[in-house]
Design a protein that fits this description.
Elements lengths: L3 E7 L6 H14 L4 E7 L6 H10 L4 E5 L6 H11 L4 E4 L11 H9 L4 E5 L7 H19 L11 E4 H4 L12 H7 L4 E5 L16 H18 L3 H29 L8 H33 L20
Parallel strand pairs: 1-2, 1-4, 2-3, 5-7
Antiparallel strand pairs: 4-6, 5-6
Helix pairs in contact: 5-8, 9-10
Amino acid sequence: MPYVSIIIPLYNEEENISDLYSEVTSVLDKNNIDAEVILVDDGSKDKTVEKLKAIAAGDSRIVVAELRRNFGQTAAMACGIELAKGDVIITLDGDLQNDPAEIPRMLEGIAEGYDLVAGWRKDRQDAMLSRKIPSMLANKLISKATKVQLHDYGCTLKAMKSEVAKNIKLYGEMHRFIPALAAEVGASIKEIPVNHRARTKGVSKYGISRTFRVILDLITVKFYLGYSTRPLHLFGMAGLGCGVVGGLTLALIIFQRIFLSIPAGSRPLLALSVLLILVGVQFLCFGLLAEMLVRTYHESQSKKVYTVRAVTNCGDIKSA
């Protein structure tokens, strides 16, 4: 059984702390799971921190990380991953809607050889209009854009091998894109239905406005997954497209002026063709600048453009 790090971000969850601790530790004890529980307080303004410290004082498995202010769930999760010492990292919400009893099933998926096991809230216990419908649309959009087909990107309950989790850099609100980011480094992914419960205590920190932030983050992820090491392919295609359309339009205007005696100076199409050519040149310049920045980024940090799953030493092969 691997050593497990359980990461739980918390923000103003004082009413759920006792039940959360009781349920998580009960699952660990019942299944003989050797684990640390990293509780990350994301700048709570209630008594969450006090309750966490009281629990940690009586249980050596509990690690409490207290952020200086509310940085957001992604930052809290990144903090927990950085502190984690386990071979397997499990993340779940602190509002008790994720069922800690699912932890053994997540570990079974890792034991089968998968690098990441994602939870699917198949029977989600949330409001239909404000939570479930926007989430369904977002999941379809994310799956199509990232080409990583999952039913539920928003479920925090996930299990990952440590080497996968620690190779994922989280910014903004990227925690919901962890499976797509993991797939980008070659991780194998399994999705399993998990129990989801209605919130009984505390107040939800999410609203409909989160949907718009997801769309903006998706644009970032799409660029990162597809063009982070070759930005000229994106800007260059846009530049060539504008340049070709502008050039053909300008050629048509010149042809009409020379052979059909159609005046060119007062035509809006002339201004449009010149504008498209200039925009195309600008896109190409942006692409070249982005290429220089990407090369500087990777070379200055000795950051590899690949990840290695394993290396097998077969010994020296001698020719006959």
